[in-house]
Design goal:
With 449 residues, this protein is α/β, with parallel strands linked by helices. 51% of the residues lie in helices and 7% in strands. It has three domains: 216 residues, 3-Layer(aba) Sandwich (Rossmann fold); 68 residues, no CATH class; 143 residues, no CATH class. Helix 8 links the parallel strand 3 and strand 4. The chain is globular, with a radius of gyration of 24 Å. Keywords: Repeat.
Length: 449
């Protein structure tokens, strides 16, 4: 395959996401990457041992939800990008359980290979099967077998000597995690690739990486994490002080409350500060003291707060929908699948406003709705909490049934012959100029799923 239109078509077929864009999205959603929140790891003995010793080829960063694993990996990626020797490649992938494009082992390999080929196109010689199979090579029932074979062969190429491979949130790989862990373990033994992976403290991951991985526990390094969280708190309070014009006394008390209750959890600090952004400075101290320590306690408090709002029922429907669908929805897709949002079909900005007001569970990036963090979805779907019955009163299966019925309704009302008004039925899809607005945009989830 030549470096040409043919190669570019191959990349288009291979691409499930561009991990570089995912990294930018994640950092933007979290308010930017603060150097002081990750710099400690660059002097950590386990990390330095992994980076500097060619015989240490797998490092597992593990920790509880909200401890800053993802931003830690973002910082490590930036450091490796800046310091790696010329010619040494780096590839990474961010798993996301709420998006089926980012939560399978095959998607992980497609993302890693995509980045490697972007840097070293000659590696395409390992993908000869594509010439016969086309894009089905990456999508059919044997996709994992094909991709893992291609990937393993690539790692034996001399141009990938000591390549850095990083995967964030292995616990959010919902499909074929066992096979992915086996591949990581095997290639860390049989090739020179240097793996760095992160996850929660899951027994399954511990068991499969036990014999090959060096561990960097965020709980064991609690003092370093706590210091990083304190730096993060200082940054957030400084921002709030400028935004809300806090006096010195208010800023000091806010900082003290955050430091006393954060328990080394970046996410808790971020969520509390997000609430303070929408609170008048006069009520800042009263507001902050209403937030209990701990993520689940915080989420419980926010559910109670939502229940007292005018649009509570609508927001609960939105949460139930987003918690159930197989991928993140756009604003326009959401308006077609929520009964109370049908009147917002031509006004998705109103839905954006509603979600923004109650932002402790959801966030919006480029008109797509995401959970603020996987722990937020876990909380809502945990039947031990009342939130589950509030957003899914009839259960998950019934919610899928409702989505199915609404999809049938919107498809029957929208689809018609030649909806794009093509002049020639034999037009290539690349030649079709989408109308604005796209009549199929709001029903994309419905016609795919």
């Amino acid at each position: 395959m030549q470096q040409s239109e043919e190669f570019n078509k191959f990349l288009v077929d291979l691409r499930v996401t561009d991990p570089r864009d995912d990294k930018k999205r994640i950092q933007t959603a979290k308010g930017g990457l603060l150097t002081d929140s990750y710099v400690w790891v660059l002097q950590n003995s386990e990390f330095c041992h992994w980076r500097d010793d060619q015989d240490q080829r797998l490092l597992w960063v593990k920790g509880n939800p909200g401890k800053g694993k993802t931003m830690l990996l973002c910082g490590i990626i930036d450091e490796l990008e800046a310091t790696r020797p010329q010619g040494k490649l780096l590839s990474y992938f961010f798993c996301q359980a709420t998006d089926e494009r980012l939560n399978t082992a095959t998607a992980v390999l497609r993302g890693l290979i995509f980045m490697l080929l972007e840097q070293e196109p000659s590696l395409v010689s390992h993908v000869k099967k594509y010439d016969q199979a086309g894009k089905e090579l990456f999508q059919d029932v044997n996709a994992w077998q094909a991709m893992s074979e291609i990937f393993t062969n690539m790692l034996h190429n001399s141009k990938l000597q000591g390549v850095y491979l990083l995967i964030d949130a292995l616990d959010e790989c919902s499909t074929d995690l066992k096979q992915l862990l086996h591949l990581i373990a095997e290639t860390s033994r049989s090739t020179s690739a240097k793996w760095l992976v992160s996850s929660r403290n899951w027994l399954q991951i511990k068991e499969q990486l036990r014999t090959v991985a060096q561990r960097l526990s965020l709980e064991v390094n609690a003092s370093s994490v706590s210091t990083a969280v304190d730096s993060y708190i200082m940054s957030k309070v400084l921002y709030l002080s400028k935004l809300k014009n806090y006096g010195d006394d208010t800023a000091s008390k806010v900082r003290q409350y955050l430091s006393s209750n954060a328990d080394g959890t970046f996410l808790w600090v971020a969520l509390v500060c997000q609430e303070l952004e929408n609170t008048h400075r006069r009520k800042a101290l009263q507001k902050i003291e209403s937030f209990p320590p701990g993520l689940d306690a915080f989420y419980e408090r926010m559910i109670q707060q939502i229940n007292g709002e005018e649009d509570a029922e609508l927001y609960r429907q939105i949460l139930g929908l987003v918690a159930t669908t197989y991928r993140p929805l756009s604003l326009t897709e959401s308006t077609t699948l929520i009964e109370e949002c049908h009147d917002l079909a031509n006004d998705p900005e109103s839905l954006r406003d509603i979600i923004s007001i109650y932002g402790s569970f959801l966030t919006i990036h480029k008109d797509t709705i995401y959970f603020i963090h996987q722990s937020a979805k876990d909380f809502l779907l945990n039947k031990a909490y009342t939130a589950f019955d509030q957003i899914l009163p009839s259960g998950i299966a019934y919610q899928h049934h409702i989505i199915f019925l609404r999809s049938l309704d919107v498809l029957s009302r929208t689809l018609r012959r030649n909806v794009y008004e093509l002049r020639a039925p034999g037009s290539f899809i690349e030649d079709i100029l989408l109308p604005d607005p796209d009549p199929l945009g709001p029903i994309k989830y419905s016609y795919i799923y």
